[in-house]
Amino acid sequence: MLLDSAISEALLRRKPVYIEVACNLADLTHPSFARPPVPYALKTDHTNQASLDSAVEAALAHLGKAVKPVLLAGVRTRPARTRAAMLRLANASKYPVAVMPDAKGMFPEDHQQYIGMYWGAVSSPCTCEVVESSDVVICVGGVWTDYSTVGYSLLLKPEKMIRVDNNRVTICNGPTFGCVVMADFLEALAAKVTANETGLTMYKRIVLPTTEPLKQGDGEMLRTNVLFKHIQHMLTPTTSLISEVGDSWFNTLKLKLPPGAEYELQMRYGSIGWSVGAVLGYCCAERQSHPDRRVVACIGDGSFQMTAQEVSTMLRYGVDPIIFLINNGGYTIEVEIHDGPYNVIKNWDYTGFVRALHNGDGNLWTAEARTEPELESAIAEAVQRRGQLCFIMVVTHRDDCSKELLEWGSRVAAANSRKPYGTGDHH
C-alpha cells in the first residue's frame, strides 16, 4: 500500500518520492505475495464543475472592474499543462505577465507581454512598480516565504490578489472555491476573459533598455557583473542553467533566457550546496531525454565545499556540464544577512581538487580565470568540449556582489532579527 501510494504520487505530482525499505526486511516474504497483485489504478485530481463555474464568475466580476490587471506566475505553474494554460490566459487577456523568482523559465521570456521578475525591492526594472500598482493581480501557483517575499516586505496585498493555488481559487479577501484544478481554472478563465492592455502599456512607457558592463582592462581583476555578461552570451535554446544559493541567484535571475532554455534554483529552503548534486541529477536525466542539452552551473565556493564530492560521481558517469566555480573567499549571501568571521572559509585549490577526483579516469577539462580575457578564452574552449566536464574557477573580490543582494540581505536580516510576538516589545 505504501509503495503504491509513493509511486502514485510520483506519477501524479511529477515530483520525486522516497521509498525506504529497512535492510532486515528487504528479503522477507509476506503472505500477500502468494496472491495475484491488486490491479493498480492511478488516482487523479478532479475539478468540481459547479465550483469551477462559480470561481470563474467571481474572478471575471473583479477583473471587469479592474483598470490595470496583471498576471503573476509562481513556482507551482511548473507542470506542462499548467504552463500551457498560463500562456493561453496571457494571450487571451493581454495582461502583462511577471514571474516570481522561483518560477523563472516557466513563462517564455521572449513573449511580448513578459515584463520580468517580481521580487519586491529586488525585482526586474519597472516590474515591481507595475505589479504593486495594479488593482488586481492574478497570482498563479505562488509560494510565499521569507525569501520569496524579501523578508515579508512586499507591498502586494491579499485584497488585490486572485490567488490560484493547487485545487483552490481565492478571490481577494473574499470567497474561496475548492476542488478546482489550477489548469482547469486558467483554461476556463481564458475562454471568457476580456482583453486589457493597460498594464502592459504602462510598463512599455517606463521601462528602459538594458545595458552591459564595459570591457575590462587586461590586468584588471574580473568583476562579477562582467562574468555574467559573458554567461549571458553563451546561453542557447539548449542550455539548462542551474544557480546555487547566494549571489548567483541574483545574477542569474537577471539573465534573459533564450526560447527553450531552462532554469533551476532552490529557493524554498535556501539549501547551500544544493546545486552540485542537482547538476549531477539534471545531467543524468537530460542525457536520456534531451541529449542535445547542456547544463551550465554557477556555484559559489562556500556552497561547493558543502557537496564537492558529487563531482566525483559526475566524472564516473561521464556527464559534461560547464561549472563556473565563483571563488570570492566566503559565504557572500551570509555576509549580507549577518556578517561574522564564520563567513570566511579556507581557500581550496579548486581545480587541483577536481583533478584529484578525476585521478586519470574520466573526461575532465579545467581552467582558471582572474581577468576578462582569461574568462573569454575559457568559455570559448569549454563550449567546444562536448563530452567533457568543464570546470572553470573564476576569482572575484570578496565584496563584489550584486546590488540586489545588498538590498535583499538587509531586508531579510531585519525580518530575521524581529522580536517574537508576545515579548511585549513587538508592535
How do the helices and strands line up, and which of them pair or pack?
Layout: H1 2-13, H2 49-65, E1 70-73, H3 80-93, E2 97-99, E3 114-117, H4 127-132, E4 137-140, E5 161-165, E6 168-171, E7 176-178, H5 182-192, H6 198-206, H7 224-234, E8 239-243, H8 247-253, E9 262-264, H9 274-289, E10 294-300, H10 301-307, H11 310-317, E11 322-327, H12 332-337, H13 350-358, E12 364-369, H14 372-384, E13 389-395, H15 403-416
Parallel strand pairs: 1-2, 1-4, 2-3, 4-5, 8-9, 8-10, 10-11, 11-13, 12-13
Antiparallel strand pairs: 5-6, 6-7
Helix pairs in contact: 2-5, 3-5, 7-14, 9-11
Task: Give an overview in words.
- The protein is of the alpha/beta class and 427 residues long.
- Helix content is 37%, strand content 14%.
- The protein is built from 15 helices and 13 strands.
- Strands 3-2-1-4-5-6-7 form a seven-stranded mixed sheet, with helices on both faces. The protein has a six-stranded parallel sheet with strand order 9-8-10-11-13-12, with helices on both faces.
- Helix 2 (49-65) packs across helix 5, helix 7 (224-234) runs parallel beside helix 14 and helix 9 packs parallel to helix 11.
- The model has no long low-confidence stretch (mean pLDDT 92).
Structural features:
427 residues; alpha/beta; six-stranded parallel beta sheet; 15 helices; 13 strands; 37% helix; globular
* Low-pLDDT windows of residues: none
Shape field: globular
Compute the separation of the termini in Å. 50 Å
Proportion of residues in helical segments: 25-40%
Task: Tally the helices.
Answer: 15
Described by strand count, sense and barrel closure, the largest sheet is:
7 strands, mixed
- The secondary-structure element order is HHEHEEHEEEEHHHEHEHEHHEHHEHEH
User: Strand share of the residues?
Assistant: 5-15%
Can you give the mean pLDDT? 92
The strand line-up of the biggest sheet is 3-2-1-4-5-6-7
Radius of gyration: 24 Å
The count of β-strands is 13
Q: Which structural class is indicated by helix and strand composition?
A: alpha/beta
Domain Thiamine pyrophosphate enzyme TPP-binding: 263-387
Pfam families: TPP_enzyme_C (PF02775), TPP_enzyme_M (PF00205)
Protein name: pyruvate decarboxylase
Keywords: Decarboxylase, Lyase, Magnesium, Metal-binding, Thiamine pyrophosphate
